[in-house]
Amino acid sequence: MAPVSSAGKGSSVFRGYEERRAQQFSNMPPQIVPILGKTLSEVPASRAIAPFLLPFLHTQQRAASILSSLSDNQSAYKKRIRRGRGPASGKGKTAGRGYNGQKQKGKAPRGFNGGQTTLEVVKGLRGFNNVFSVDMIPLNLNRLQAWVDQGRIDASKPITIKELGESRCVNNVKDGVKLLARGSEEIKNPLNVIVSRASASAIKAIENAGGTVTTRFYTPFAIQKILKGRMDPINSLSSQPVEGQEPTRSPFIPRLPDPTSRKNLEYYRDPAHRGYLSYQVAEGESPSLFWKAKAVRDSKRRTAGKAKSAADNRIW
To answer: Quick one: how far is CA 254 from the chain centroid?
Structure first.
């Protein structure tokens, strides 16, 4: 094609060039057309601006060709390893597993000892599962006193698992709460605490401050109902009866259960543990259900009985 300057304005070459030029302008963004959407004869010399300066002359800009130049970074993606796809993949044939062997053909179970007798069979399992273990949440006296000082627990009312759970003093209670004596010197208020278990030093610190400690039997199901407010956290059928008050037996509200196993019965019958069943143990009687306290007898009657039995058993 001949250059534009060598032909006149009325030549066919110039007209074909103008048609192609107009077709290109029709595909351009609208803000570029007012400047370039004219023939070469109509564009004055003062408006002949370099194309790379055109986007900076308008407030509204539209990147028309940026989508065609987008590409990923070279390190954006990691080449996937195609195992067992021939030598070109880098992990062909054996797929990186080597030749033969158990690791190439299958998996070895846990504790596999190369085909010989496992150590669990030769040595045996160490330890045992203690069926009597319980998961008690520890509660120290300094934490309990801090909750009372902050006003999160009312010291004038009995402090049960319900109050401890609602105030977030203890969390995730499973089998019960055990009262411990750390920070016993910080106790200032007479507290009436009802928990699952308590240490001897914690009981002594609470009682020295003028309070009381009562250990109460709870099951995990009962603890869930108590925290939801659907069960009485103190009274049950075996609780110490109050004069003029009978235990509630509502068929709609779950009743607080009492211990049934010997281990729990002996613990909550023991006055040393401040168990709520200690009123059932008479003075001088043992809280144990198996071992009975020795009866106190008069020494004279004991000696007289021995002499009589010896005389009766005499042969001559």
So the answer is: 28
